[in-house]
C-alpha cells in the first residue's frame, strides 16, 4: 500500500519540475495540533511550487471528518489519530492506498506555570486543589480519547468526571490551563511547547499505541496531482524538519 503511494508521489514530484500544468489550488484539512507546523509547511511548499495555492482548515479531527461527510471540499486530510482516519476510510472519504503515517506526537498532562498544583501522577488529579481538568471532547478529539483511555486504565475516569471541562480541541484545553481557568489539562506535547512560559508538562502519558498522525488524499479531490505533491513535500526532508522544529517525532 505505502509502496504504491510512495511511487505515485515520487512520479508526480518529478513531473512538476518540468510541467507547470499541474499547478492547482488545494484545500487541506488538518488537526488543530498541526496548526503552527502546517502554516510553515504551506509557506515553504508554495515557495517551492509558486504556481500552487494551499488553503488550510484546522479543527478537531472528528469535526473535520464531519465536514467532509457533509460535502466540504477537501483534497488532503491529516488526522491526529488512526481512529478518525479509519472512519474516513470506512465512509469512502479516503482510500487505504492513499493514507500514510507521517509524524508522531505524545500525550501530556499540563498545569499552569505559576501557582499550579503539583501533579506527579494521574492519581493526583483527585486532590482538592484541582477543580477543573480541561479535556478535548472524546467524542471527536483524539487527545480527549487518548486521555480518557489513560484515565480508564488508571481507574480514574469515573472519579474525576465532575472536574472534566470538555472543550472543542487541544488548543482550547491549552488556553484553559494557560489562563488558569483549569488547574490541569490534557494536550499533545507539541501544543504544550507553544506556551512554555504559561504551562508546565507535569506528566507524559503512556499510550497503548503510538500517537501517530495519518495523512491522505481524499476520494473527492479534483486536484489529485497537487494533493500527492503536497503529501510528498510533508514527507520530504524539508517537511519533516519543519515538523521536528515544532516538537513532532518521525513516524516509525
Overview of the molecule:
It is built from 10 helices and 10 strands. It has helices spanning 2-18, 35-48, 61-69, 82-90, 142-153, 157-160, 170-178, 189-192, 224-235, 237-245, and strands at residues 25-31, 53-59, 76-78, 94-105, 107-112, 133-136, 164-167, 184-188, 199-205, 211-218. The chain is an alpha/beta fold and 252 residues long. The chain has 2 domains: 2-105 and 211-245, Periplasmic binding protein-like II (D-Maltodextrin-Binding Protein, domain 2); 107-205, D-Maltodextrin-Binding Protein, domain 2 (3-Layer(aba) Sandwich). Helix content is 39%, strand content 25%. The strands form 2 sheets. The chain has a 5-stranded mixed sheet, with helices on both faces. Strands 7-6-8-5-9 form a 5-stranded mixed sheet, with helices on both faces.
Return the CATH topology of the largest domain: D-Maltodextrin-Binding Protein, domain 2
Number of spatially distinct domains: 2
| Low-pLDDT segments | 7-20
In which order are the strands of the major sheet placed? Answer: 2-1-3-10-4
**Percent of residues in beta strands?**
25-35%
Could you tell me the radius of gyration in angstroms?
19 Å
- CATH superfamily of the largest domain, by name, is Periplasmic binding protein-like II
Total strand count, please? 10
Classified by CATH, the class of the largest domain is Alpha Beta
Amino acid at each position: 500500500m505505502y509502496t504504491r503511494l510512495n511511487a505515485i508521489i515520487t512520479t508526480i514530484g518529478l513531473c512538476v519540475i518540468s510541467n507547470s500544468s499541474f499547478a492547482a489550488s488545494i484545500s487541506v484539512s488538518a488537526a488543530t495540533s498541526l496548526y503552527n507546523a502546517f502554516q510553515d509547511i504551506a509557506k515553504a511548499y508554495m515557495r517551492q511550487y509558486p504556481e500552487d495555492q494551499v488553503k488550510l482548515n484546522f479543527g478537531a479531527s472528528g469535526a473535520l471528518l464531519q465536514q467532509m461527510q457533509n460535502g466540504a471540499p477537501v483534497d488532503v486530510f491529516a488526522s491526529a489519530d488512526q481512529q478518525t482516519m479509519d472512519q474516513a476510510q470506512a465512509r469512502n472519504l479516503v482510500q487505504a492506498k492513499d493514507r500514510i503515517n507521517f509524524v508522531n506526537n505524545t500525550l501530556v498532562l499540563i498545569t499552569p506555570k505559576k501557582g499550579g498544583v503539583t501533579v506527579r501522577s494521574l492519581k493526583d488529579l483527585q486532590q482538592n486543589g484541582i477543580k477543573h481538568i480541561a479535556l478535548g471532547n472524546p467524542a471527536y478529539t483524539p487527545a480527549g480519547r487518548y486521555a480518557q483511555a489513560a484515565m480508564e486504565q488508571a481507574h480514574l475516569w469515573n472519579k474525576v468526571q465532575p472536574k472534566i471541562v470538555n472543550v472543542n480541541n487541544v488548543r482550547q484545553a491549552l488556553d484553559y490551563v494557560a489562563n488558569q481557568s483549569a488547574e490541569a489539562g490534557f494536550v499533545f506535547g507539541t501544543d504544550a511547547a507553544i506556551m512554555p512560559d504559561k504551562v508546565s508538562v507535569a506528566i507524559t502519558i503512556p499510550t497503548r499505541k503510538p500517537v501517530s498522525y495519518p495523512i491522505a488524499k481524499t476520494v473527492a479531490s479534483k486536484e489529485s496531482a497537487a494533493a500527492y505533491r503536497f503529501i510528498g513535500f510533508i514527507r520530504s526532508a524539508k517537511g519533516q524538519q519543519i515538523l521536528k522544529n515544532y516538537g513532532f517525532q518521525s513516524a516509525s
